[in-house]
Amino acid sequence: HDPSDLIVWVVPAHRADRDIDRQALEALQTAFAEMVDRRPPAVLLVATHIDRLRPFHVWAPPYDVEDGQDAKSQSIHTALLAVRDDLPISESAIVPVSLSPDHPAYNVDLVWAQIAGLLPEVKSAQLLRRLAGAVHRGGWGKVQSQGVGAGRLMVRTISNRGRRS
Fold this sequence. Notes:
Blueprint: E1 6-12, H1 19-33, E2 42-48, H2 71-86, E3 94-96, H3 108-164
Parallel strand pairs: 1-2, 2-3
């Protein structure tokens, strides 16, 4: 199987039946806790269907989920807290979105921004995974040999640039 370094987990915010999601996320955390040579993947949780939260007939984004005074903002905030309480994930890793065909997509840009923010962590996990894989496949000798070869190439490149100046 191909390992993942970033997981985008999607749950409907308007439904309370998240037990299977909780079990799966906990199993994922347990599996990675047992892997000493792997960093767990970053998890971004996307809470969809926020347009279906109370009041049902209201949809006038954008919404201030943290400090919003209107009923829809408060409903979204409450739903996000419920998701956080139900699932083993931090509140900062939850993005509320709406992808309803009845109106333009909402907060998808925030999903992309969150993914971009996670990229350094993802790249670090990927590098560690690849190094561990290289060690398992060819031992440290191969990794050392490749490192030495890369160092020689860098020295030659720097030397050649110095001669051209």
